[in-house]
């Protein structure tokens, strides 16, 4: 079992924090948001999920002095060459707005027949700011963008992300269901396996 007792989550997104906390609960690690240490959001200037996640984890570890976990995630639409991708949270510009992001995506896909998409998540855990071997895991969740929202749960693009095998959108799933099959859930389960099988 891991020797890590405290872990800073490099995010201020309440939805992400709830999901991460629920899935790390079995490890008996005290999970804390970076806001507890007055750590603000760091710039995410890179074009890849992994570079942004590394930047966020390193920043949170440096500011808190503790091991840090960061994720970078987004929705990638095949017909749009992977957009919004790393720009998912700011797809419609500043300030961040789920509603405006979803409106922009729906308009971009309104006349398309291929609306296949996938959520992607990469997670980076650094034991300390100079960790030369961070744990890196990822997960993907495939579905389709629909033009009308369904469901009240989740956040981000969830009301428009339709799962054919379930006949529901992500926003129509319970938190427990979503954690079991989502991109973030898959990545976190892989992280838990890594932590349990290695002396980190």
Describe the structure.
The chain is α/β, with parallel strands linked by helices and 200 residues long. The chain has a single domain (6-197), classed as Alpha-Beta Complex (Maf protein), CATH 3.90.950.10. The chain has 5 helices and 7 strands; from the N terminus they run βαβαβαββββαα. It has helices at residues 14-24, 49-64, 98-109, 175-181, 183-197; strands spanning 6-9, 30-33, 68-77, 116-126, 135-145, 161-163, 168-169. A hairpin with a 4-residue loop joins strand 6 (161-163) and strand 7 (168-169). It is globular, with a radius of gyration of 17 Å. The termini are close together.
Beta-strand level of the residues, as a percent range?
15-25%
CA(first)-CA(last) distance: 8 Å
Strands of the largest sheet, in order across it?
Answer: 2-1-3-4-5-6-7
The CATH level-2 architecture is identified as Alpha-Beta Complex
CATH class: Alpha Beta
Unreliable stretches: none
Order of helices and strands: EHEHEHEEEEHH
Number of helices: 5
The major sheet is characterized as: 7 strands, mixed
Number of domains: 1
Average pLDDT metric: 92
How is the secondary structure organized here?
Blueprint: E1 6-9, H1 14-24, E2 30-33, H2 49-64, E3 68-77, H3 98-109, E4 116-126, E5 135-145, E6 161-163, E7 168-169, H4 175-181, H5 183-197
Parallel strand pairs: 1-2, 1-3
Antiparallel strand pairs: 3-4, 4-5, 5-6, 6-7
Entry summary:
With 200 residues, the protein is α/β, with parallel strands linked by helices.
List keywords for this structure.
single chain; Maf protein; globular
């Amino acid at each position: 079992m891991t020797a890590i007792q405290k872990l800073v989550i490099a995010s201020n997104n309440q939805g992400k924090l709830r999901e991460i906390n629920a899935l790390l609960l079995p490890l008996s690690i005290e999970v804390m948001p970076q806001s507890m240490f007055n750590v603000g959001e760091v710039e995410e200037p890179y074009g890849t999920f992994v570079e942004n996640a590394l930047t966020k984890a390193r920043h949170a570890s440096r500011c808190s002095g503790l091991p840090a976990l960061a994720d970078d995630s987004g929705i990638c639409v095949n017909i749009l060459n992977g957009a919004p991708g790393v720009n998912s949270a700011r797809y419609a510009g500043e300030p961040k707005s789920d509603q405006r992001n979803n409106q922009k995506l729906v308009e971009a896909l309104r006349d398309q027949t291929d609306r296949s998409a996938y959520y992607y998540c990469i997670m980076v855990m650094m034991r300390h700011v100079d960790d030369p071997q961070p744990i890196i895991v990822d997960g993907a969740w495939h579905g389709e963008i629909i033009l009308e929202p369904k469901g009240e749960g989740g956040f981000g693009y969830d009301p428009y992300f339709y799962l054919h095998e379930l006949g529901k959108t992500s926003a129509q799933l319970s938190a427990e269901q979503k954690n079991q099959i989502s991109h973030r859930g898959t990545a976190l389960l892989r992280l838990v396996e890594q932590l349990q099988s290695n002396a980190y």
